[in-house]
What we know:
The structure holds 2 protein chains of 2 kinds. Chain A is an alpha/beta fold.
Amino acid sequence: MSLNIVVLVKQVPDTSEVRMDPVRGTLIREGVPSIVNPFDVFAIEAGLALRDAYGGKVTLLSMGPSQAGAALREGISMGADDAVLISDRAFAGSDTLATSYALATAVKKIGQNAGAGVDLILAGRQAIDGDTAQVGPGVAEQLGMPSITCVSKIESLSQNGTGPNLRLRRMLEDGYQVVEVGLPAVLSVVKDINKPRLPSLRGMMKSKTYNLPTWTAADIAADTTLCGLSGSATRVKRIFSPEKRARGETLEGGAAEQAKTLVQRLRDSGFSI
Amino acid sequence: MSADSANSASATNATSAVIATNKNIWVFGEQENGRLALSVLELLGEGRRLVDVANAVNAGQKLALVLIGTSADIEPLAAEGIAHGADLVYVCAHPELAVFQDEPYAAVLTHLCRTERPAVLLAGATLIGRALAPRVAARLRVGLTADCTELGIDPENGSLLQTRPAFGGNVMATIVSSDRRPQMATVRPRVMVPLVRDAARKGEVVKINLGGLDFSTRAKVKEVVRELSQGPALDEAEIIVSGGRGLGDPKNFALIRELAEVLGGAVGASRAAVDAGWIPYPHQVGQTGRTVRPKLYIAVGISGAIQHLAGMRGSDVIVAINKDASAPIFDVATYGLVGDLFEIVPAMIAELKAGRAAS
């Protein structure tokens, strides 16, 4: 069995440092470091582990400006075989619908180039800047594949009559489902799925010299009316700072006194505890 | 790819027609084994309020509940939906829809949207809602806003205003759908308020014929395992007690569990506690874990890294217990208790028990 795996990767601002300009009402992005979306690192590891166990190839795919290539190089240094950046002005301003379309179109092209299609698409559960968790299932829908969200464990891969079949766990609010899915499929993964490997020396050397393919909308034959702003079905009307939580009351006294005051305060404010 | 010819807006003159013909606010009636998810009642409450506002702009709109499952599971829920605010309930019953599966459920919802043309489709921002909604939105090529914490109706044009946190809660954004219908949003549980159940409320129940729909999928649910059986699920809990690195040792989580039990709450944890292997990942609150919004959040021995705050800062009341008075968790705490958690938490448990014994 040999798997052609694509991992979706997003470069995100380190959101803990993103703030609003209170006067202009815009985001302050200057000086905010860019990182690989933390969930995507688990998706990369899941892809590498499957490749190492069953053979095949891992290609990383990202959409963004040329700087986003840095995120792909980090994945190459972990051991990914290849990476592709799709980058074009036509993609600017994409919402999750337009992003899903562009990525799905690029996945098709990766499959065509391989000659045998893509077997598995992996993504992080969500990106920490937008927190939508919509692109994984959106890509699946555009490709007509099943999507399994919140995958917390890949139990096994077997070959049945119709092709490769993955058995995995999907995290629920209060437990998990065991799901079997015939490939090709799209999985979005949570942190519990694995412990990502560190970059290897060989990987780091490769990432330095790796000639990163960059594809435009024309390269993947994307319909530009479905890309970017014109392909987006939502727009941001307004952004604003959240109501700031005021620092509350620091309770006085020793442990027993603080505990007593707290329970009293909570009961007074309506908690039947 | 399946663009919906009726609902996608490729020409401008078609656009205004879509906006005028698409009416009603829908709520996806997430249910399991005939039990409605808590978020459904919340969405019906919010939907009722939105319909009343929307009617001022575009009269004659109704609040509808969409139920998908087996007849045995969902038919009894129709009356429940009406009692909680729905004017109309669509019953989409089929033996193959017994458990939630992404593609068959998406096929049903897409079919219903195309034939019945809602203006708005809301789902809970639960695991199921967040898996299902993006597939439906992509199939219909309509907008979808994730995890909203506030909804409104634009008084000028009646469109849905969808407000949500982004960038770890550092920024709020109000999103609108362009010219396409339905306007879709998932809504964070525990934010919206259900109506008081009123069995006298009247509504219409419509059974939908699902003949000819394709329910096939290559993904099969083989087994469902319930793990967090102790107390309520984290996402639905009114009270959460979370433990962090300050506990010092995994066995000290017993203290957190005991306090949670006394309060009837759920157990959460910081990333540090999860990464140390003290408690399983499903309990993790924060950026790479769950986002929660209980009425009461008690952070014990958690310093309050920004990634943790991103997952709990929307809680109504926050209590912080930490020995370090300069810990950032105190900046968001309604009540701060500076001191030794091993003295404070047992004192709280004693106080809570004593109060009950007296009353």
